[in-house]
Specification:
The complex is a heterodimer. Chain A is α/β, with parallel strands linked by helices. Chain A is 47% helix and 15% strand. Chain A contains eleven helices and nine strands. Chain B is an alpha/beta fold. Chain B has two domains: 150 residues, Rossmann fold, CATH 3.40.50.1100; 220 residues, 3-Layer(aba) Sandwich (Rossmann fold), CATH 3.40.50. Chain B has a six-stranded mixed beta sheet, sandwiched between helices. A four-stranded parallel beta sheet of chain B has the order 7-6-5-8, with helices on both faces. In chain B, strands 1-2 form a two-stranded antiparallel ribbon. In chain B, helix 2 packs across helix 4, helix 4 packs parallel to helix 5 and helix 5 packs parallel to helix 7. The longest helix of chain B has 17 residues. The relative contact order of chain B is 0.16. The model of chain B has no long low-confidence stretch (mean pLDDT 96). Classes of the chains: A alpha/beta, B alpha/beta.
Chain lengths: 267, 408
């Protein structure tokens, strides 16, 4: 079996002795065209790009990502536009993994099978569904796997040991560890030491699974967690878009600079 | 899809929490899995615990004040002709609405779980007011999430919350109403679930919250059943139980003991918020054919667009102004046990005018939706038909809106 693009990216980062950098931006933020431009530009520094398909009732997102999502919806983003952004991106950067992230109602309304097929068609590499937890997601995850799409399981500080074992056992190539009890964009309120402790617990169960840490990662905190397989930055990027728009500065340049700085902290 | 007999409706779900195989469930972020599981275990333990039941009944009797009265609306019935119209005055409960049952039970659970902080959402402000009362009573610190638009239109309840020592967190995102308040409250719980208990204000949200709320409000129908036997010597042959439906907590509470009866004997009628007559917006997912969707952790009929974005709603009644509805009402709809319809803002206002003209009663805009339906159907029905409306809230909170709309 061939190695997934996601695993290839982690392998490459490991060869360079650093964690993989994962970015999160919202498709359609702040326009369809600009979100593709941002994606192309930041992918020079990011190893894996997460792309959010925005929902107007995001129960696990903090203010920064909510703002991005509302802005994208207001500017007319539709789910098919999200797929077309991915397709266009993949035509130029076919080796850069793209992970779609969002809430289940959007997928449900599109139809599970149709959504997964469309992911395949558009060369999406992975999927994160915030409000479809384990074990309810088993069936959906299985359908993804059959189409060669990575379904990414989430683990949080509240995940019990028993659950952790099952989730890791049923996970695909990548696992997302939520660093703390928080929505996205919260200030990191747990010490890196404690975060890494739980991270190692997951790794111990299966060292071949790539585990990324997200929530509360900024220029300030990213280096303290550089032992992880990968680190996800989302809200920091979304807030940079908001800030640049407010100051009427070049959004693409500013956001790219943030990602570049983040990358430099972990090289 | 079938209802089972002799099992409370709240317990007729499968192992994943779905009623009828597709309504409800727990669509929650991973972080909430553990707190929801803990709460589920705790609740199942407590509801079997005699001491806890005694405690509940003690506070229901001495703190909430049970039973609330069942009265015949003689003047209104005479005026309309046809069926007899009765009302269960649930607004007599401490605080002025049925929300006190759920709030009291949540506060008791919170205490039993050793948590000191309790948070909740509110639309009309009743759920928030009652939770703040219960929190004060049981020595808990309380935060209430409320849409900025609702804070403006339901000021009397906000004053009450503050007086009870609760902190009101205004929510400015989205439509600034109940839907956003629930989202923000869930976000807060995601971040603070280690020391904080969350109370969902209606029979909505992840499975366990539907159950706790339904278990709490079912007090209403236990009382009603006894009162019917007292007043009529037996359960009358033709009853129609009319209730407004937003999230659906008062309707479930009003109906729960009667679901096993034949529809011919006891018809259940739910009245949703149809919104302003001239507006396209409404808050009536059941009666106006909304699609199944996932909102706030549950699958239910939900006002949304083709993409799955949640629609804005509009209703004069903040307590009904919610795009989705309880999964148990979806189940009752699809099994055809209950019938759902809607009343517009204007219908509700007219009902308010008529009820207050003929009766010494001051129902809030939410139950006025139910009264509108009762007024509509009563003249066509026979004299032995007993229509009972759940007058589940008091209009004191609506005084500003009523003043403006009716120059009262």
């Amino acid at each position: 079996m061939s190695i997934s693009l996601i695993n290839q990216s982690f392998n490459k980062a490991k060869e360079e002795n650093r964690p993989a950098l994962l970015t999160y931006t919202v498709a359609g933020d702040y326009t369809k065209k600009k979100s593709l431009e941002i994606l192309k530009s930041i992918s020079k520094y990011a190893d894996i790009c997460e792309l959010g398909f925005p929902h107007n009732t995001p129960i696990a997102d903090g203010g920064q990502i909510q703002t991005s999502a509302y802005r994208a919806i207001k500017n007319g983003i539709k789910i098919n536009d999200v797929f077309s952004i991915v397709s266009k991106f993949k035509k130029i950067k076919k080796d850069k993994p793209i992970i779609l992230m969002g809430y289940y109602n959007m997928i449900y309304q599109y139809n599970d099978e149709k959504f997964i097929s469309k992911c395949k068609e558009s060369n999406v590499d992975g999927l994160i569904v915030v409000d479809l937890p384990y074990p309810e997601n088993k069936n959906f995850a299985f359908k993804c796997k059959k189409k060669g799409i990575n379904f990414i399981q989430l683990i949080s500080p509240t995940t019990s040991k028993k659950r952790l074992k099952k989730i890791v056992r049923d996970s695909h190539d990548m696992i997302y560890y939520i660093s703390m009890l928080s929505t996205t964009g919260g200030k990191l309120k747990v010490s890196p030491k404690n975060i890494l402790k739980k991270y190692l617990e997951i790794k111990k169960l299966n060292k071949f699974k790539n585990v990324v840490i997200g929530f509360g990662i900024t220029e300030k905190t990213i280096n303290s967690l550089n032992k992880a397989d990968g680190l996800v930055v989302g809200s920091r990027i979304c807030s940079e878009i908001s800030k640049s728009l407010k100051k009427r500065q070049n959004v693409v340049t500013n956001v790219t600079n943030v990602v570049k700085r983040l990358k430099n902290k972990i090289i | 899809m079938k209802l089972k007999k002799n099992i409370p409706l709240i317990d007729q779900h499968d192992k994943y929490g779905f009623w009828g195989g597709k309504f409800g469930g727990s669509f929650i972020p991973e972080t909430l899995k553990k707190p929801v599981e803990d709460l589920t275990i705790q609740f199942e333990k407590l509801r079997k615990d005699k001491k806890f039941i005694e405690k509940r009944d003690f506070y229901f009797k001495n703190y909430i004040g049970t039973p609330t009265s069942l009265i015949k609306l003689e003047n209104l019935s005479n005026h309309l002709g046809g069926a007899q119209i009765w009302a269960k005055i649930v607004s007599e409960a401490n605080g002025g609405a049925h929300k006190i049952y759920n709030a009291t039970v949540h506060a008791l659970i919170c205490k039993a779980m050793g948590k000191k902080f309790i948070v909740g959402d509110t639309g009309a402000g009743y759920a928030g007011k009652m939770l703040s009362m219960a929190a004060k009573k049981f020595g808990l610190k309380c935060k209430i999430f409320m849409g900025a638009k609702d804070i403006k239109r339901q000021k009397p309840n906000c004053d009450a919350m503050r007086k009870n020592g609760a902190e009101i967190i205004p929510v400015y995102s989205g439509s600034q109403t109940l839907v956003d308040a629930v989202s923000e409250c869930m976000r807060y719980w995601v971040s603070n679930c280690d020391n904080t208990h969350m109370c969902v204000g209606s029979t909505v949200g992840p499975n366990i919250f539907v159950k706790i709320c339904g278990w709490s409000t079912s007090q209403i129908s236990r009382e009603l059943k006894m009162q019917l036997r007292e007043k009529f010597n037996k359960i009358p042959k033709k009853i129609k139980l009319v209730n407004c439906v937003g999230g659906g907590s008062s309707a479930y509470g009003f109906w729960s003991e009667f679901i096993d009866f034949e529809k011919k004997q006891i018809e259940l009628i739910g009245v949703e918020a149809g919104g302003p007559k001239k507006s396209k917006l409404h808050a009536a997912p059941l009666s106006r054919g909304a699609k199944l969707g996932i909102l706030h952790g549950a699958a239910a009929y939900c006002c949304q667009n083709d993409e799955g974005q949640i629609n804005e709603t509009e209703s004069i009644s903040a307590g009904l102004d919610y795009p989705s509805v309880s999964p148990i009402h979806c189940f009752l709809k699809d099994t055809k046990r209950a019938r759902y319809t809607y009343a517009t803002d204007e219908d509700a206002l007219n009902a308010y005018k008529m009820v207050t003209k003929f009766e010494n009663l001051n129902p809030s805009l939410e139950p006025c939706h139910a009264f509108a339906e009762a007024i509509k159907i009563a003249p066509e029905l026979s004299e032995e038909t007993v229509i009972i409306v759940n007058s589940c809230g008091d209009a004191q909170k609506d005084r500003d809106i009523l003043k403006k709309r009716l120059r009262k």
